[in-house]
Amino acid sequence: MVWLPIIILIPVYGYGWHALQQKFMDPDIKVSVIQGNIPQKEKWATEYVDSILARYQQLTLAAAKDKPQLIIWPETSVPGYILDEPKIFKNIVSLSKKVNTHLLVGSPRESEKGGIYYNSAFLFAGSGEIKKVHDKIHLVPFGEYIPYKNMFWFLQDSAIGDFSPGEHYTLFSLPNNKQKSVQFAVLICFEDIFPSLVRRFRRGGADFFIVITNEAWFKISAEPIQHLAMSVFRAIETRCWFVRAANTGISGFIDPYGKVRAKVERGNEDIFVSGFKSLTLASD
Question: pTM score, two decimals?
């Protein structure tokens, strides 16, 4: 009987060794992630709009010196509804033109018909135009919406959001260092914890993934580390790079082998710090 576990483990370790020898697709594109570290109590307070935009502008201009093809802001990093607030919209357009590169930002939006709200990601080109928008698909129950509203009628006047789920598995496309088109999917908030959702993007043609999130809700806890681990699992399962941009949490880069290649850090801290990090998504 002592040989049975050994016999079982041999093919397991054998496959692991074989997988680590494989070469997986490199998007070969340089990306910068911004971690704003905006306290949750300030994110939606009107008196902090200017200071929040100023912080993201400062970090974006600094990251642009690394000459990335894409700069990423976290989930709901824009302090308002980007399409409905001219001051904020002009600020983002002006900044994208100034850095002359693609800028992905998180912001809520209202549908064109009105009355329907989404948690979204906007991709701005270096010209300042919006290239594409993606709406979050898997919402947080009792956070972004109230399930079974008739049953939980007493929550209707609470502070719970009233967002609607997106219906499209949107893929964004950018040229890489060889001027070849690569596609990426954006996972918003906790969507990277759902393997089936991530696989659908992958089967649709995603070459790498971006996770934009806000973990300021959880303060000092194990949640940011646990959430990072979910991205590690998804990277290994899909054999894709994962790029994470958190308002605060752990922002960084995970390669297709599940190795965390770089993080936004200050000293020995990677949570509740502001900063940026740039990396080319390619093998050493």
Answer: 0.92
> Is residue 259 flagged as an active site residue?
no
Catalytic, 240? Answer no
Which of 30, 43, 136, 277 is the catalytic position? 136
**Segment 175-205, tens digit of pLDDT:** 998 889 999 999 999 999 999 999 999 999 9
Active-site hit among 30, 43, 75, 277: 75
Q: How far is CA 48 from CA 61, 79, 109, in A?
A: 20, 8, 20
In the chain the domains, ranked by start, together with CATH numbers, are: 28-280 (3.60.110.10)
Give CA–CA dist 253/280, Å, rounded.
10
Tell me which of 43, 189, 240, 263 is the catalytic residue. Answer: 189
- pLDDT tens for residues 231-279? 999 999 999 999 999 998 899 999 999 999 999 998 888 888 999 999 9
